[in-house]
């Protein structure tokens, strides 16, 4: 059976944006269908902050594959075992938070790639091949090319090390966790602060130098999101099921509550 392609990775290689639909609360196989129907390229299954079981995570991944939406899982910092298990069971990308050094990034990249590029263990027929892969060596090389390895830079130390992190073979995206970064900088929530703009410039420069992709998370207002996309961000988390539901529900309840003569 043919390998499921990572459409998000291909879009970004062509210089296009890959838009992510954050998943915290949704659990059904309709989730990637909803993401696709609303113009998203990937789903961000958040096992760092969301209350997902391994079964729920992997079922969302497997359901995404035939839809053409890239299943990407964020694990907790250091949770390499959780990440590789997700990859064995349908994930086409992993986001690792709180990556501060090139040594951190190298360990992650090695764990997510099969030899000779890395040290990932073969877990049997993988979901991304429909459980019918070709010869192991051929399958491993092809899967290595599809996996998206995303490291999150969320501290001043990480920003200072951006060039060294971007130089690590096997890392695809340097994803700025803007909310946590502002907190560590002492400017919590100030997404347009000059220190944040400088961080995006530094990480963007490192990405361009080493052929990597700049990612943006935590920036949802139009002014600042437009600024950082203009600075080269292409791996974009647009929001989450929580924020989408709240915004849509607020809009509709506001409409009815503000109707002239509404009995409230």
- Fourth CATH level, the homologous superfamily: Phosphoenolpyruvate-binding domains
Strand order, largest beta sheet: 1-2-3-4-5-6-7-8
Q: Decide which structural class fits the backbone.
A: alpha/beta
Instruction: Tell how many strands the DSSP assignment holds.
Output: 8
Mean pLDDT: 97
The best one-word shape is globular
The quaternary organization reads as single chain
Largest sheet: 8 strands, parallel, barrel
How many structural domains does the protein architecture include? 1
Proportion of residues in extended strands: 15-25%
Order of helices and strands: HEHEHEHEHHEHHEHHEHEH
Distance between the termini: 59 Å
What Rg do the Cα atoms give?
19 Å
Per the CATH scheme, the topology name is TIM Barrel
How many H/I helical runs? 12
CATH class category name: Alpha Beta
Q: In the CATH classification, which architecture applies?
A: Alpha-Beta Barrel
**Which residues sit in consecutive blocks of at least 5 with pLDDT less than 50?**
none
Helix content: 40-55%
Short overview:
The protein contains twelve helices and eight strands.
Structural features, described:
The structure is a single chain. The chain is of the alpha/beta class. The termini are far apart. The longest helix is centred in the last third of the chain and has 17 residues. Helix 2 links the parallel strand 1 and strand 2. The protein has an eight-stranded parallel β-barrel with strand order 1-2-3-4-5-6-7-8, surrounded by nine helices. The relative contact order is 0.13. The protein is globular and about 70 Å long. Helix content is 44%, strand content 17%. The mean pLDDT is 97. The protein has a single domain, classed as Phosphoenolpyruvate-binding domains (TIM Barrel, Alpha-Beta Barrel). The chain contains twelve helices and eight strands.
């Amino acid at each position: 059976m043919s390998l499921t392609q990572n459409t998000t990775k291909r879009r970004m290689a062509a210089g296009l944006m890959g838009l992510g639909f954050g998943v915290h609360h949704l659990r059904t196989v309709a989730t990637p269908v909803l993401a696709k129907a609303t113009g998203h390229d990937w789903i961000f299954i958040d096992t760092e902050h969301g209350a997902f079981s391994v079964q729920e995570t992997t079922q969302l991944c497997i359901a995404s594959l035939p839809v053409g939406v890239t299943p990407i899982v964020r694990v907790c910092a250091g949770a390499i075992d959780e990440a590789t298990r997700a990859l064995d069971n349908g994930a086409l990308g992993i986001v690792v938070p709180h990556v501060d050094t090139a040594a951190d990034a190298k360990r992650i990249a090695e764990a997510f790639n099969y030899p000779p590029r890395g040290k990932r263990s073969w877990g049997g027929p993988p979901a991304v091949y429909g459980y019918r892969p070709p010869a192991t060596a051929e399958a491993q090389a092809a899967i290595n090319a599809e996996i998206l390895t995303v490291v999150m830079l969320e501290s001043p130390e990480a920003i200072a090390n951006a060039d060294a992190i971007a130089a690590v073979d096997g890392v695809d995206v340097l994803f700025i966790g803007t909310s946590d970064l502002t907190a560590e900088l002492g400017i919590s929530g100030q997404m347009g602060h000059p220190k944040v703009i400088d961080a995006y410039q530094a990480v963007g420069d490192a990405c361009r130098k080493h052929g990597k992709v700049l990612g943006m998370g935590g920036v949802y207002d139009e002014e600042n999101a437009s600024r950082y996309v203009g600075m080269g961000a292409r791996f974009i988390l647009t929001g989450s099921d929580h924020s989408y539901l709240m915004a849509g529900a607020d809009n509709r309840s506001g409409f009815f509550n503000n109707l002239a003569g509404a009995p409230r």
